[in-house]
Design goal:
The chain is α/β, with parallel strands linked by helices. The protein folds into 2 domains: 225 residues, Rossmann fold (3-Layer(aba) Sandwich); 62 residues, Alpha-Beta Plaits (2-Layer Sandwich). It is 37% helix and 28% strand. The chain has 10 helices and 11 strands. The strands form 2 sheets. Strands 3-6-7-2-8-1-9-10-11 form a 9-stranded mixed sheet, with helices on both faces. The protein has a two-stranded antiparallel sheet with strand order 4-5. Helix 1 packs across helix 10. The chain is elongated and about 70 Å long. The structure holds iron/sulfur cluster (2 copies).
């Protein structure tokens, strides 16, 4: 089972939930930080990093001597990363998505492969668990290509192994967030019971809903705001898997870089219940699918 821990906005406690779930899960997991723009799962899980690799994207290099400004590369590039301006060809490697189409179509061999560094992929162990993360290079604008590299490494790390995967996803509903949840089996949407929390939760529910994956809500800092988020979940039929209290112990534990589930026995039980509810949600969805098949 691949569990995506997502949220409609940052600062909801998504990483706290992901780290805590890893710590109470009923067996070894592979913990993955796909929030490559701002990875911080490692701050809580404190893994021993055992390996790393630079992630590179293939981008075209232009040989102006060979180019006759035919414009075929510009026509095929969907991202305007190579554009014909009058009879001058301009390349913007930082906008390139690495699709390789321009290299394919150039009739004069004026384009050759070059590389842009995206960031790095790091892996290791956090106690009984495997750990994997991506870290975007400062100044790099595109995170999905690096996320693809993290996912490739994940496939290698989990090939032939038992055990579930818990992913700390990027916040929001833009391309990186959708990219992170799309391969998951179950989505946990973490939010807080405030007007902003509800607004972003609803956006995330709309963005991820069409994927038809089992989705459950985790209300963090319960008791802080109002009950409109819970009412929204009831109205839309989204199961509330946990309501985690807003407490001094949680805040202290978070600010000390500790796993919240380990702060008190009550919090440990609350996250243990969330882990069980997540597995049940997944199994029930599988049973429903089998019944309809
Ligand atoms: S590799 Fe693809 S995205 Fe990059 S410049 Fe060429 S056509 Fe555009
Ligand atoms: S396709 Fe090749 S020759 Fe034509 S404009 Fe592009 S780089 Fe120049």
């Amino acid at each position: 089972m691949i569990v995506a821990v997502a949220s409609g906005k940052g600062g909801t406690g998504k990483t706290t939930v992901a780290a805590s779930l890893c710590s109470v899960w009923d067996g070894p997991v592979t913990a993955v930080d796909l929030d490559v723009e701002e990875p911080n799962l490692h701050l809580f899980l404190k893994p021993e990093i055992q390996g790393s690799a630079k992630a590179l994207l293939e981008v075209p290099r232009l040989d102006e001597e060979l180019c006759d400004a035919c414009g075929q590369c510009s026509d095929v590039c969907q991202f305007k990363a190579i554009s014909l301006l009058g009879d001058v060809l301009l390349a913007f490697p930082e906008m390139c998505h690495g699709c390789g189409a321009c290299l394919e179509v150039c009739p004069r061999g004026a384009l050759s492969p070059n590389h842009r560094e995206l960031g790095e992929v790091l892996w290791g162990r956090a106690g009984r668990d495997q750990f994997l993360m991506g870290r975007l290079r400062v100044g790099e604008a595109m995170s999905p290509p690096l996320m693809r590299e993290v996912k490739k490494r994940l496939s290698r790390m989990t090939a032939g192994r038992e055990g579930d995967v818990i992913i700390d996803c990027p916040p929001g509903v833009s391309c990186p967030a959708v990219n992170a949840v799309m391969d998951s089996d179950v989505i946990l949407l973490v939010s807080e019971p405030t007007p902003f929390g509800l607004y972003d939760f609803a956006l995330a529910w709309e963005a991820f809903g069409p994927m038809n994956k089992p989705m459950g809500a985790v209300i963090n800092r319960a008791g802080l705001g109002d009950d409109k988020l819970a009412a929204f979940c009831r109205e839309k039929g989204i199961p509330i898997l946990a309501e985690l209290p807003y407490s001094r112990e949680v805040a202290q534990s978070y600010s000390n870089g500790m796993i919240v589930a380990q702060a008190t026995p009550e919090l440990g039980r609350a996250f243990g219940d969330l882990a069980s509810a997540t597995r049940r949600l997944y199994q029930e969805a599988g049973a429903k699918e089998a019944a309809h098949a």
